[in-house]
Design a protein that fits this description.
The complex is a heterodimer of chains A (316) and B (201). Chain A is an all-alpha fold and 316 residues long. Chain A has a domain at 51-220. Helices cover 52% and strands 1% of the residues of chain A. Chain A contains 15 helices and 1 strand; from the N terminus they run βααααααααααααααα. Chain B has helices spanning 3-14, 17-20, 35-57, 61-64, 66-95, 104-126, 131-146, 158-187; one strand at 24-26. In chain B, helix 3 (35-57) packs antiparallel against helix 5, helix 5 (66-95) runs antiparallel to helix 6 (104-126) and helix 6 (104-126) runs antiparallel to helix 8 (158-187). Chain B is elongated, with a radius of gyration of 20 Å. The two termini of chain B are 35 Å apart. Chain B is mainly alpha-helical and 201 residues long. The longest helix of chain B has 30 residues, at 66-95. Chain B folds into 2 domains: 31-96; 102-188, no CATH class. The chains are: A mainly alpha (316), B mainly alpha (201). At the A-B interface, strand 1, helix 1, helix 9, helix 10 and helix 12 of A face helix 2, strand 1, helix 3, helix 5 and helix 6 of B. Strand 1 (14-16) of chain A pairs antiparallel with strand 1 (24-26) of chain B.
């Protein structure tokens, strides 16, 4: 029987150990365990939210969100890199802003991408065609003034366009009303995804639009997925989710991270540091010596120590 | 000497058959905790198998078929087991100070495997095409964007995330696991603490 004598420093005894048998037994055990767990517990699948579903279920939230896209005050419009050109919007990690370093690699123009361009594709609506013509013929300053005025009035009216006070809003009420109808018919889902292409797998724009509203967040919070609900490590239903993200999620629950405008950059900076430490444990004085003091190894190798200490007692 | 013979000779020198696949281990390798390493590898294979079954009919299948949903459940639970076994294995190796005796790279490859597995599981949630995917992607983008990574690694791009989840990251994990196992075979199982040689790395 052959023997591997490469265990550095080890000059003691060896015992038979069937690695292949152990592996096959492990494979069978894991397969059976997986089959059993899947059979008993299954897996969650809470359906995706479409823009059509959102706009039908909560037209006021949809309209309020669309108004902020048109007056450039939404989360996406004011995000900064990598979506919009606003270096001041970037999160700071101490004196540096790594968010700005790559620049705008996924440009998003919320006015045109989310509102105007989808509406241009709607055929045969004279009122809409006239509204778009007015919009195009007007200066950017006047457009912003109309959009901001209507956004403010809509908020005062709790998102109900029928209760909006009369004012100078130009074609904005028509544009947003038509966008709501387009969304409710399902047309906006395709329009935001296609962006002039046939095949498409990039959902950046529809997801940004959806996340600017409160409907998605309300649904997520009902499934305990909120940021302050340890949401990044949870999944829908009563399933384990990603418990290995506990430390990353933990920082979002405590100050100063939980109250900081730069929480993401701070948490990511800290986690990158801790991750480097985790990988380099063998080289970190103090940390690499912890196992000697914790003495859990005495439990792991208890048979070995019992044997060694028993031999010493016999000799003495 | 040809490149081929050089590679062959060095491989055989580094990994003679009794070192690559030994049928004996030091007497101190006598604890259930040692099983978690092989359990991790076994569950990785189950993860690959169940993921491959899902891949055969594409990412939409499990939403529209009871059989597909069950296969998705198999994939989910095999991942949970894989991660659980690996975490226990990692903690055990920490408590053993298993980086002793020129075994630092063994620890590092294990740690990198854990990190790559987190990334793979995370991208798995992004390509589920359901509420989880929508919420996790729109939340996670903020962290990635804040450090400049989101400019290149776009969690809202389903196509990009699918490629990372089913091709790049599993391949990386497979390579790292292979390196890790070869290092374990090359250096051997770390001996108990008082019997150490060579001191801390």
């Amino acid at each position: 029987m052959s023997r591997a004598v490469h265990e550095e420093s080890w000059v003691g005894g060896y015992r038979d150990y069937d690695l292949v048998k152990e592996f096959v037994a492990a494979l069978v055990a894991v397969t059976l365990l997986t089959v059993g767990l899947a059979f008993v517990f299954g897996s969650p699948d809470v359906h995706q939210i479409t823009l059509a579903q959102w706009s039908n279920a909560s037209p006021s939230d949809f309209l309020a969100t669309a108004a902020t896209e048109l007056d450039r005050t939404s989360g996406s419009a004011t995000y900064g890199a990598p979506y919009t050109h606003d270096p001041s919007a970037a999160q700071k990690l101490g004196p540096i802003t790594p968010q700005n370093w790559p620049g705008v690699t996924k440009p998003v123009d919320t006015v045109n991408d989310f509102v105007v361009m989808p509406l241009r594709a709607v055929p045969g609506d004279t009122q809409l065609t006239q509204a778009l013509g007015t919009w195009d013929a007007t200066s950017p300053g006047q457009r912003d003034s109309w959009a901001k005025g209507y956004d403010s009035a809509l908020q005062t009216a709790s998102g109900d366009p029928a209760k909006v006070a009369s004012g100078s809003y130009g074609p904005v009420p028509v544009l947003l009303g038509q966008l709501l109808r387009l969304a409710q018919s399902g047309g906006l889902d395709g329009a935001l995804l296609e962006q002039g292409r046939f095949y498409m797998t990039d959902y950046t724009k529809p997801l940004l639009f959806l996340a600017d509203g409160t409907y998605l967040e309300d649904k997520a919070r009902a499934e305990h997925l909120g940021g302050d609900q340890w949401g990044m490590m949870n999944e829908t239903g009563n399933y384990p989710g990603q418990p290995w993200l506990w430390l990353y999620t933990f920082w979002y629950q405590v100050k100063p991270f939980s109250t900081s405008d730069n929480a993401d950059a701070l948490v990511w900076g800290l986690m990158m540091l801790l991750t480097a430490g985790f990988v380099l444990v063998p080289f970190l004085p103090g940390i690499r010596s912890l196992p000697r003091y914790l003495r859990v190894y005495r439990l792991i190798w208890r048979d070995y120590y019992r044997s060694v200490e028993g031999s010493r007692q016999l000799r003495s | 000497m040809s490149w081929t013979s050089t590679v062959r000779d060095r491989s055989v020198e580094a990994f003679p058959p009794d070192r690559l696949l030994p049928d004996q281990q030091p007497v101190y390798v006598a604890s259930w905790i040692y099983v978690f390493g092989v359990l991790t590898i076994a569950s990785f294979l189950v993860v690959l198998a169940t993921g491959s079954l899902l891949a055969i009919k594409g990412p939409m299948w499990w939403h529209t078929s009871d059989l597909g949903h069950y296969v998705n459940s198999l994939h989910l639970w095999s991942v949970e087991l894989f991660m659980a076994f690996m975490v226990v294995h990692l903690w055990a190796k920490f408590f053993m100070a298993a980086w002793r005796g020129r075994r630092a790279m063994t620890w590092i490859t294990g740690a990198v495997c854990f990190l790559a597995s987190i990334g793979t599981a995370f991208t798995g949630y992004l390509v589920q095409q359901n509420l989880d995917s929508q919420w996790i992607s729109t939340q996670a983008k903020d962290g990635l964007d804040s450090v400049g990574v989101g400019a290149y690694f776009n969690v809202m791009d389903f196509g990009q995330m699918l490629m990372w989840h089913i091709a790049l990251l599993p391949a990386a994990i497979g390579v790292v696991i292979l390196l890790h196992v070869l290092l374990v075979r090359r250096r051997g199982v770390v001996p108990p603490l008082p019997a150490r040689a060579g001191g801390d790395p």
